[in-house]
Amino acid sequence: MARRIGILGGTFNPVHIAHLRGALEVAEQLALDELRLIPSARPPHRTAPQATAEQRLAMVQLAVEREPRLAVDDRELRRDKPSFTIDTLESLRGELAADDQLFLLLGWDAFCGLPTWQRWAELLQHCHILVLQRPDADSEAPEALRDLLAARSVNDPQGLVGPSGQIAFVWQTPLAVSATQIRHLLAEGRSVRFLVPDAVLAYIQTHGLYRGQTDS
Ligand SMILES: Nc1ncnc2c1ncn2[C@@H]1O[C@H](COP(=O)(O)OP(=O)(O)OP(=O)(O)O)[C@@H](O)[C@H]1O
Ligand SMILES: O=C(O)c1ccc[n+]([C@@H]2O[C@H](COP(=O)([O-])O)[C@@H](O)[C@H]2O)c1
Q: What does this protein do (predicted)?
């Protein structure tokens, strides 16, 4: 039987409750067999984060360790080049059966940036795209995405058929939390308790991450 696999890529600098809650809610709503969080080793559109790829991976591993619906995939740390999503999808597809369904989760802000991604027009050959609403983001889709949305979007994520090729919007509990906000709070010496899992908070404290810096 075809499997249903979701992936959420991110810099996860650090991973926070909106990533985790969104991933869990989508996994439940779409009855996914697996939802993998994939830390970006070298985020293509950002300056290098202060936390190393290994530290960001470790925080994601701690965050999901007691949640059987969520898993971590470290393949982007095993590639010695920028973490392009098309490469990740091609590599995943090489491990799946042809009829397995692959769902790429993107927050609204990430989705709006799609036309700037490496070989972006090929992404839907490998996966469906699930767009997560994000309360802290602008609402207009860029012009470059209008035709794609008109041709490929379906109203109900339950209506996504086949292994790849369509776009749907998914509901998640709106959480206006960002990693930027968390880094800023930590730089100011303030608490981020309840914005990240306790195990992630302990890791940040043990490794002295995000102290005295205002970004990245
Ligand atoms: N609060 C949120 N609600 C919905 N989606 C989110 C939220 N925060 C992040 N995402 C999505 O999760 C994915 C990974 O995000 P990322 O690791 O860049 O976190 P971030 O909080 O956006 O980080 P930063 O503040 O450093 O830009 C992206 O697709 C992003 O849109
Ligand atoms: O493939 C690309 O060109 C590309 C460009 C920008 C971002 N991405 C991916 O999008 C995900 C979210 O990125 P970010 O920078 O918002 O954390 C993460 O998995 C990145 O690797 C991918």
A: Catalyzes the reversible adenylation of nicotinate mononucleotide (NaMN) to nicotinic acid adenine dinucleotide (NaAD).
